[in-house]
Amino acid sequence: MSDCYLAIDVGGTKLGAAIVDVGGEVVLRDRVATPPRDVWPALARLVRRVLAAAPSRPLGCGVGCGGPMNPDAGTVAPLHIPSLRDFPLGAQVEELTHLPTVVDNNAKAVALGEAWRGAAVGVRDFAAVVIGAGVGGGIMVGGRMLEGRLGNAGHVGHMVVEPEGRRCECGGLGCLEAYCSGSAIEAETGRPPQRAPQAIVERTGLLVGRALAGLGAVCDLKLAVVGGSVALGFGEPFFASCQSELDQRARLSFTSGFRVVPVGLGQMASLVGAAALARRAHANGRA
């Protein structure tokens, strides 16, 4: 009997694949750097390797990918992976693996994973934010994922934090992602985010806290779990700056005490989250 899921994470800097058991434990995993072009062939090779090593045939496959997405067309259009713009990722993965496959935004996947096995177990209303090559989010309300009209709800990276600020990849001005994403920080400093100066680390936390204060007021939230290579790499100084800004701005009676914490699943959050997508689809009879 199958007792696992195939989990795939498609990010701007790395591609990951794993076998995750039905209890949310990562059994095996592999990853490669996201190439500047020909991303699908690289991902397909990675997935074949992981499937070949799987202890049993997975129940289904979950894929977390940067957005936005077009569910009507079945395509993805991650801003930081140009070669996957308008790419039919779900259909291609399903053809490759012969597994029922569900694709969703990778930050929404992280929210599901954190509710299943991470820092938000037992919490019905919270936000998950992923700060890596881009900035994504997923919002749980009443224990259910906030989907939106086209399934693109949660794009916190495109909340405006600096009016008339920098141009963002989306075409707008002053988006959170234009300041806090790994690609934006590298463009500004000329060095990778892990070597960013302290002032950038603290500013990143401040701007994320600013965005979360607004999100908490709109969605009635008191918890945010934050992950991704940039946030986790920055560590405590980032989280302290973020919490300080939240404390200053979240002053309504129902947002007072809003906490921001690291994802409980650490570097495994994206892969366990992708497995959570497959788990949810399987439970709903869609995979």
Describe this structure in words.
By secondary structure, the chain is of the alpha/beta class. The protein has two domains: 4-106, Nucleotidyltransferase, domain 5 (2-Layer Sandwich); 119-263, 2-Layer Sandwich (Nucleotidyltransferase, domain 5). Helix content is 37%, strand content 21%. The chain contains nine helices and twelve strands. The strands form three sheets. The protein has a five-stranded mixed β-sheet. A five-stranded mixed β-sheet has the order 10-9-8-11-12, with helices on both faces. A hairpin with a 3-residue loop joins strand 1 and strand 2 (14-21). Helix 6 packs across helix 8 (236-249). The longest helix is centred in the C-terminal third of the chain and has 22 residues, at 198-219. 49% of the residues are buried.
Residues in β-strands, percent: 15-25%
What is the correct CATH architecture of the largest domain? 2-Layer Sandwich
Total beta-strand segments:
12
Order of helices and strands: EEEHEEEHEHEEEHHHEHHEH
